[in-house]
Amino acid sequence: MQTTLRIALRFLLAKRRAMMMSLTGIAFGVGFIILTQAITAGFQAFFIQTILGADGAIRVADKNQLTEVSIEAEPVKDGKKGPSVSVKVESDRKYIEGVVEPRLQIEAIRRIPEVVGISEVVRGNITIQSATREESAQVFGINVDNHLAVSDLGKQIVFGSVSDLRASSSAVMLGTELANRLKIRLGDSVLIAYGGQSIRYRVAALYETGVRDIDRIRIYMQLEESRILLKRPFGATFLQVSLHDPQRAPEVAKVIESITEHRAASWQEREKVWLAVFAFFRILAAITVSTIIVVSGLGMFNTLAMIVMEKTKEIAILRSMGFTRRDIAMTFMLQGALVLMAGLFLGFVLGALCTLVTENVPITIRGIFTTDHVVVAWEFSHYVLAGIMAAVVVAVASWFPARRAARMEPAEIIRGASQ
Amino acid sequence: MNTDQKNLPNGSSDGVAIRCQKLSRFLGEGEGRVHVLREVTFEATRGTVTAIVGPSGCGKSTLLYLLGLLDRPEGGEIWIGGRNLAQADDELRTAVRNEHIGFVFQFHFLLPEFSALENVMLPMQKLGRLSRSAMQERANKLLGSVGLGEKAHRLATQLSGGEQQRVAIARALANQPSIILADEPTGNLDVKNSAVVFDLLTRLAKENGQAIVLVTHNPEIANKCDSVRPMRDGVFVGKEGS
Question: Residue B28 domain-assigned?
Answer without folding.
Answer: no
